[in-house]
User: Fold these one by one.
Assistant:
Number 1:
Amino acid sequence: MKNVKKILIFSILATISCNNEKENPISSSQLNINGLKKEIVYDKNIESYGVFLDISSNDTLNYESLPFSILMANEQNPKASVMVFVQMIEVFNKKKFTIKKFSDLPEANKDFALYYLKKGAEMGSVSGQVYLEEIYRKGIGVEKNEMKADSILNVLRKQKGYKDEHRLTFPGMRE
């Protein structure tokens, strides 16, 4: 895992530095994106990460967000941990997330994505808990385990404001 972190940090820094060394003038939006990337890498700035996620949802930056999500997830950020799971599926599914596509990931990638999903769920991410409950309940990419699914559902039901209908409202659950 340490080697993965080193590779990710190196690739992030290389991306930032390559973006800064372009011969063409850099637009204000590129400066803003590069500034956000630097704040995420050097300051672990959660607000910058959130803005970067919003911006990176467009076609040109979609695949760039995964290393930043991994970096922030390793800083114990539950949202980022769940985003690693979502983005891993998107990488292998033409930028589209559906939970059913989790089972189509190559085994090593599935283990990687599941590790971060569990991490996010353990840190209290409701979306992470909902996805994890669904995976175990239906056996999506893992052995079906209704006892684990029921246990996760019991934790979810204790969350303030959670209702069983929420399981149906999460993106990627109905497809």
Number 2:
Amino acid sequence: MLEEFKPTWMVKSIYSVSPEQLKAHGIRAVFSDLDNTLIAWNNPEGTPELHQWMAELEDAGIPLIVISNNSKERVAKAVETLKLPFMSRSLKPLSFGITRARKKLGLSKDEVVMVGDQLMTDMLAAHQAGVRSILVKPIIKTDKWTTKMNRFLEKYVWRSLHRHYPDLKWQEDLND
């Protein structure tokens, strides 16, 4: 059961993962959590680094799709300035949102990656969907109140992961 939480990669920031690295691993689409992964939960504008990374993905022909548990209205408002497609009410840690997005693009499980900042939702959902995953550090230290319980439980999962997988470490990018 513990392996269900283990990310394929652990990268400090998604912005350091280049389209070339993704393509080298056969990845043709990036699915991403929204809050504290792409944008700070309290800053829907995003950072210059995010906008640069999104432009690089677009130039490389790699779609970026937001997979969020939030309502359609909340996600639409949050990604309005980013102009990103999304799947709302994804029910993470279940695989529904990831599977819907993957099938909509007509891609195999090996051709997508799920990016997120939480073991309890994002990494578990990726495993449930049978896709690879990238765990990133949260953009900011604070979370919405709905995430605080997950962070509390995550501490215990982290301890077990590190005990069973001592080589688990943060990387600068996928090639580190």
